[in-house]
């Protein structure tokens, strides 16, 4: 065969591949931009931050430069109790701003308009950080930059918040992507019997500004989009991630005990070899109960991953 035929074939293949990728990736972006952001979308993008997974701000995927979701019960400036606690999304100085602030056009026309005019969403300074809130104006949602509107600074909010009121969702999503959880679990229930088992499929507007969506590539294990609603037990999650066989004897899920790090919640060194030896004795019937799982440290990767799981409602 002459080289000319190879050249024509390769060009045709490239045209077909490029066209399919355009249909698959580029064209749907217009639908996402035209959709109106739901409260789910606003919460997800403000919790996770600008980008989850590998990026120039976090090349080792350690969950660095991520916002913290904080339950605020009192005004961080005056100390006066709020009528109702609100979730604040704290972006420390230097943390990349969320897509809602950098690209408000992705919010949908009505949400963008209110976020710009009432929420001052674009009035931020990355060097000093910002605090964002999800607000409602009648029946319409918008994002408010509380640093611009109420002078709530990241340091003020973090200084008044208890650790129990903090959720490291963005860092946890990085762990979800880095550890390959999406290889077996999806975040996208289908319009089948999933409605009864895994919860209702999401709306188009649930994904505005989220990057990446982490839908998953296959389902070898349960869908996790609504797992926080099905199981809100932090203790169960802790057992499951440390060793899945503690709660599901025939689970094929790998252990993620290394996400605990070297120290437990009390600062004591974790003896993994001793724990595994005692667990082997338990499986062999040499002891009645399995060994206790060490409580994770508040700055551990395990805590962040569990925070992310519990945020999926």
Overall description:
This protein folds into 2 domains: 39-167, no CATH class; 174-311, Cytochrome Bc1 Complex, Chain D, domain 2, CATH 1.10.760. Helices cover 37% and strands 11% of the residues. It is built from 12 helices and 5 strands. A 5-stranded antiparallel sheet has the order 4-3-2-1-5. It is globular and about 65 Å long.
Strand content: 5-15%
Q: Which structural category do the helix and sheet elements fall into?
A: alpha+beta
Please give the number of β-strands. Answer: 5
Using the 3D structure, state the CATH architecture of the largest domain. Orthogonal Bundle
Rg from alpha-carbon coordinates: 23 Å
Question: Could you give me the name of the CATH homologous superfamily of the largest domain?
Answer: Cytochrome c-like domain
What is the mean pLDDT?
A: 91
What percentage of residues falls in helices of 4 or more residues? 25-40%
Describe the structure concisely for a colleague.
This protein has helices spanning 3-34, 39-48, 99-102, 109-117, 146-149, 154-160, 169-178, 194-197, 227-230, 234-242, 272-283, 301-311, and strands at residues 68-74, 81-91, 130-137, 140-145, 166-167. The protein is α+β, with helices and mostly antiparallel strands.
Structure keywords:
313 residues; alpha+beta; 2 domains; five-stranded antiparallel sheet; globular
